[in-house]
Design a protein that fits this description.
Blueprint lengths: L1 H13 L6 H12 L5 E2 H11 L5 H13 L3 E5 L5 E5 L9 E5 L5 E4 L5 H11 L9 E4 L2 H10 L1
The structure holds zinc ion (2 copies).
GO molecular function: DNA-binding transcription factor activity; transcription cis-regulatory region binding; zinc ion binding
GO biological process, one term: regulation of secondary metabolite biosynthetic process
Organism: Ornithinibacillus halotolerans
């Protein structure tokens, strides 16, 4: 955890930003809940437990800054809520998501499945791809079994 905080601190410094205590509290919550895809409000409530003096606006600004610097990715799973997801260390692309339409669970795929698709886009459309988002909506394994049982 500490080395990741350190790394984020360096990423901020490289762009002339400081890791203020408020920013650090927000980053720690993101690291502790890495698998959770939290909304800004969720993050705010968790940050507040550690730093009660922090305001929602500060947390919002920190999240915006972190997304600008590509430390976090902002993502929307189609429910109108923006969620924040830490970019995995050393990842060149944003990981893919499998979202269950039944229970809302979110699985992550770290492997980049779109390398070939990007090549096609670059050669056929002359478009220089820098990143992509890929979210699959469907039924997770647990919900598939539940559906079979109830029919
Ligand atoms: Zn994710
Ligand atoms: Zn499910």
């Amino acid at each position: 955890m500490e080395h990741r905080i350190d790394r984020i601190k360096k990423q901020l410094h490289a762009q002339s930003y400081k890791l203020t205590p408020q920013r650090e509290a927000t980053v720690r919550v993101l690291l502790e809940h890495e698998a959770d895809h939290l909304s800004a409000e969720d993050i705010y409530l968790l940050v507040k437990e550690k730093a009660p003096e922090i305001g929602l606006a500060t947390v919002y600004r920190t999240l915006e800054l972190l997304s600008e610097l590509k430390i976090v990715d902002k993502i929307n799973f189609g429910d109108g809520v923006s969620r924040y997801d830490l970019r995995k260390e050393g990842a060149e692309h944003f990981h893919h998501h499998l979202v269950c339409i039944e229970c809302g669970s979110v699985e992550e795929i770290m492997e980049d499945l779109l390398g070939d698709v990007e090549k096609i886009i670059e050669s056929q459309w002359g478009f220089q791809v820098q990143d992509h988002r890929l979210t699959f909506h469907g039924l997770c394994k647990v919900c598939q079994t539940a559906t079979v049982k109830s029919t």
